[in-house]
Write a structure and sequence with these properties.
alpha+beta; 2 domains; 4-stranded antiparallel sheet; 9 helices; 8 strands; cNMP-bd_dom_sf
Length: 190
């Protein structure tokens, strides 16, 4: 828990008082999930804003033949079907763990309480939501501006120690190519 506090203090560039921190912590719950656990199903409204302590989450649109991978979330990042979390409507995609994953979760209603009752809650919430927005925007720019090979290299550079846990078919879907095209990219690189 102290690691998370230090992370937030560094991110918001402010010490978090013990009283505010204890109030914030009282709203968090720790959850451990096994590999391939569905944490969000299509049609289920997202009720959690999570911090990934350890593990990998994949958000994807389920398809009969090949799922469409939207995002991977790694250790030390925030995870949420944020559009669903904000609008309180169900998404058309799902979330699953790719390895054993530990999350610190904050319910939507508890976040609203933190916003209303603490200054620090607003700062942490703003930082977390901006973090999700920037990650999504970076992905959109990547899809519009970069080659599939560059997207693969970027993913590998971002999390080299974790990418080995992601099946190649999910990586191919994420960078927007077929598994065969990914195989050709990997042959050129290695």
């Amino acid at each position: 828990m102290e690691q998370i506090r230090q992370y937030f203090e560094q991110a918001i560039q402010q010490k978090i008082g013990d009283k505010d921190w204890q109030f914030f912590v009282s709203k968090l719950s720790r959850h451990e999930f096994s590999k391939k656990h569905i944490i969000l199903k299509t049609g289920q409204t997202e009720d959690y804003f999570s911090f990934v302590e350890t593990g990998i989450i994949r958000y994807y649109i389920p398809k009969i033949e090949n799922d469409l991978t939207l995002a991977f979330v790694f250790d030390g990042y925030f995870a949420s079907a944020y559009d669903s979390f904000l609008t309180r409507t169900p998404p058309i995609y799902e979330g699953e763990t790719l390895v054993k994953t530990t999350l610190w979760r904050l319910k939507h209603s508890d976040l609203q309480t933190l916003y209303a009752e603490t200054e620090i809650g607003n700062k942490i919430g703003r930082f977390a939501s901006e973090n999700l927005f920037l990650k999504k925007f970076k992905r959109e720019l990547s899809l519009l501006n970069e080659t599939a090979e560059q997207r693969y290299r970027d993913l590998f550079t971002e999390q080299p120690h974790l990418i080995q846990h992601i099946p190649l078919k999910h990586i191919a879907s994420y960078i927007g190519v077929t598994p065969q095209a990914l195989s050709r990219i990997r042959k050129r690189i290695y």
